[in-house]
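Cast an eye over this sequence plus tokens and explain the fold to me:
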Amino acid sequence: MDLDWNDAHTFLAVAEHRSFSAAARAMGLGQPTISRRIQELELRLGEQLFDRGKHGAMPTRAALRLLPAAEQMARWAAEFDRAARGVENPGGGVVRMAAPPGIAVEQLAPFAARFRTSHPEIVLDILSAVEHVDLTRGAADIAVRTQLPAEPELVALHKGSNMPGIFASEAYARTVRQPCSWHDLDWVTWSGVRRHVVPRPMLERIIPDFEPVFTSDDYLVQKAAVRAGVGAMIMGRPVLFEQTDLVEIDVGVQLPAYDFYIVVAKSVQQVPRIRLVVDELVAMMG
């Protein structure tokens, strides 16, 4: 039986998203195309791969047996893609970087501007996500993470630290009595399914019955609220660069630093354009 990567890719997308429509969106295809491919694959295999119901497309036992092989094919396809991009344009091309929203906005975007002045042949594609992306399957070439990778296929090329501070608009800062404490501030932070994202867990530990005045599941919305004078927000101090519209508020204690790691797949750590971006990023982030 001849199965190609398109078969495995379609199967894997439906298995991961548990939905034909979500898989179609992820692959940039129409839902009828996804449905037809799965039906054809099921006919060739003689097995039903998904139970279709009100809860989506749930993998059958046959699908679960195939899943590890499809995931391995995805990793091989990612390796081939990276190698092909290197052959096509050994000195340049696209480098995909993934990071939590705060780092993506405050560090990687300004880094891209600086990097482009000296390396215009390389295009940086920055993915902002709270969840880790799968580097082994080529979702990104480089990731900035706040935890060491557990996967044996990944390696941390650099460890740094970031010293956060409490920031607010000048107008809001003028309304805060001095000296002030954590309890005196109106807090802006993460909401909903993002409640576990730093720094909200720390605020909940420090402030009994913590009640923020504004929450959002989007970092840029939080930052816009702070700029508008809604309240205060914990941000990384070194990442502010030329911003002059936010000021730091002193609560009498130093916030704990947090570590970050620049992570890549071991198979790409010596790819010239990826190594160049890593080296430049390390020089900037320290």
The first strand starts at residue 50 and ends at 53.
